[in-house]
Design a protein that fits this description.
The protein is of the alpha/beta class and 270 residues long. The chain has helices at 3-16, 24-49, 76-83, 131-136, 156-165, 200-209, 225-233, 253-262; strands at 64-70, 101-107, 110-116, 143-149, 168-170, 177-181, 187-191, 215-219, 237-246, 268-269.
Length: 270
């Protein structure tokens, strides 16, 4: 069985498992196994191509870099053109922008590089179209600007998920843990805080999935199993993000106020 089939088999098993307290542990391990397989697949792709599957080539400039991530036609290029000296093509149809378009914005003496990107769609992270390359640009950005259209305000989850799938975590810090492999002695855990989201056994099981049988683990934060798997798998980037709700000129105040009670996170109206 190849890696994609293995992933599929585990996903099928997850779909069949009811989520409750008793199965939490099991589901957590399955997720860790998937994370590990995905990483192996990524490594394989890199080996095959000989180069890292990096994003578009853009020379970083200025004091900080901001990238625009959003579905097609939400108005990314329009905003770039307003904020910077760039002239990125704007049109009423989808997928107008096909490559990275950089612009430079000056704000209180700071030069901020703004990168306009092609729109992404659900499934972008699994390599549909240019998806992966587009998303990868966000990896080294100082700020990811998630852009939503006022008539499609619930797409934030899609954007967060797609970025998450390629290992970009938004508005989160790396987990405060250290794992040092040792040659013998099993897994020794030093807990500086009480773990409430994961049991000690579960933690050991996840380490075993990654082939660690002897290690010294120091935990300084109440972590989840996902955070643990992230830490072991490595290659995760942690970026800051803001969410913009664009095209608010098309609706009235009442519509907007009602909408904002339904959106989970805070948004900046543009
Ligand atoms: N009413 C209104 N229309 C806007 C606004 N921003 C952009 N538009 C329009 O929305 C359409 C799409 O704008 P673009 O800036 O090309 O959108 P994009 O997100 O760059 O699209 P892709 O490059 O295809 O991903 C164009 O017809 C714009 O004129 C806005 O704030 N208000
Ligand atoms: Mg565009």
């Amino acid at each position: 069985m190849g890696i994609p089939e293995k992933i599929k088999a585990i996903q099928d098993e997850m779909a069949k498992t009811q989520i409750n307290k008793a199965t939490n542990h099991h589901i957590g391990l399955l997720k860790a196994k998937i994370a590990k397989l995905k990483r192996e697949q990524e490594d394989k792709e890199i080996q095959k191509k000989g180069v890292k599957t990096d994003g578009f080539d853009v020379r970083r400039a200025g004091d900080a870099t901001v990238v625009f991530i959003g579905l097609p036609s939400v108005g990314k290029s329009t905003l770039l053109n307003k904020l910077t000296d760039a002239k990125s093509a704007v049109a009423a149809y989808q997928f107008t922008t096909l490559t990275v378009v950089p612009g430079m914005m000056e704000y209180r003496g700071a030069k901020i590089q703004v990168l306009d990107l092609p729109g992404i769609i659900k499934g972008a992270s699994s390599g549909k179209g240019l998806g992966k390359r587009i998303l990868s640009v966000a990896r080294s950005a100082d700020l990811v600007l998630l852009m939503l259209d006022v008539f499609q305000p619930f797409h934030e989850d899609v954007l967060v998920n797609e970025l998450g799938n390629i290992g970009i975590r938004l508005n989160r810090l790396p987990p405060n843990i250290t794992i040092e492999k040792s040659s013998m002695g099993g897994i020794a855990i030093a807990q500086q805080v009480k773990l409430t989201k994961i049991s000690e056994q579960h933690l050991k099981d996840i380490l075993h999935i990654y082939g660690m049988v002897s290690a010294r683990v120091v935990i300084r934060e109440d972590i989840t199993s996902e955070q643990l798997a992230d830490h072991i798998a490595g290659n995760i980037s942690y970026s800051k993000s803001l969410t913009v709700l664009n095209k608010i000129d098309l609706v009235n105040r009442e519509f907007l106020e009602d909408l904002k009670t339904k959106i989970k996170s805070e948004v900046i109206e543009v």
